[in-house]
Design a protein that fits this description.
171 residues; alpha+beta; Actin, Chain A, domain 4; four-stranded mixed sheet; two-stranded antiparallel sheet; 6 strands; 21% strand; globular
């Protein structure tokens, strides 16, 4: 088992290196939900040229985090409106739809989202503007690729998983 683990780490580091060559920024500092949300806040505020209060940011998360994959897809594809504390509307987007190269592309590894009932760790996640969009589970050649798919399905079906109640809903 130890040999498989070493190989998985080597595969992971190789993938991250390749993604860095493709201009993804490696973010080894993002390891938990708090860091993921803080990164999203920074990217959201920069993209939309706005500063949110803590209460507004909490409400924004409540607005965009959904167990409905179609609602999440709609939020990604369209301009959205959010009511600020002073009652004014904030028209925002989660990704730069007009100029894709101006989006922020990052790679995160070994992210751990702990909830009341699960302690999942995700191998590699591709993040656009602070939103985790693509999950990659890595296995050594000694392990069937089917096992990686099974792991993702198990994570998704685990009660209290992060796919429905955190930014992972966009994956």
């Amino acid at each position: 088992m130890h040999l498989d683990m070493t190989k998985e780490q080597e595969i992971e580091q190789g993938l991250i290196k390749k993604l860095e060559e493709l201009k993804y920024s490696y973010r080894p500092d993002i390891r938990d939900r708090e860091a993921l949300e803080q990164n999203f806040r920074e990217k959201f505020e920069a993209l939309n040229r706005v500063r949110l209060t803590d209460a507004e940011f909490a409400r924004l998360l409540d607005d965009i985090i959904s167990s409905d994959v179609f609602a999440c897809a709609e939020h990604l594809r369209h301009r959205n409106t959010f009511e600020r504390e002073d009652g004014t509307p904030l028209h925002y987007q989660l990704v730069n739809l007009k100029d894709w190269c101006k989006n922020s592309f990052e790679v995160v590894n070994q992210l751990r989202i702990n909830t009341k009932s699960s302690f999942h760790r995700y191998d590699v996640i591709l993040v656009v503007n602070g939103l985790p969009l693509v999950q990659i589970e890595l296995k050594s050649l000694a392990v069937s690729p089917r096992r990686a798919m099974q792991q993702i399905v198990e994570y998704k079906h685990d009660p209290g998983n992060g796919y429905t109640n955190s930014l992972l809903c966009f994956m």
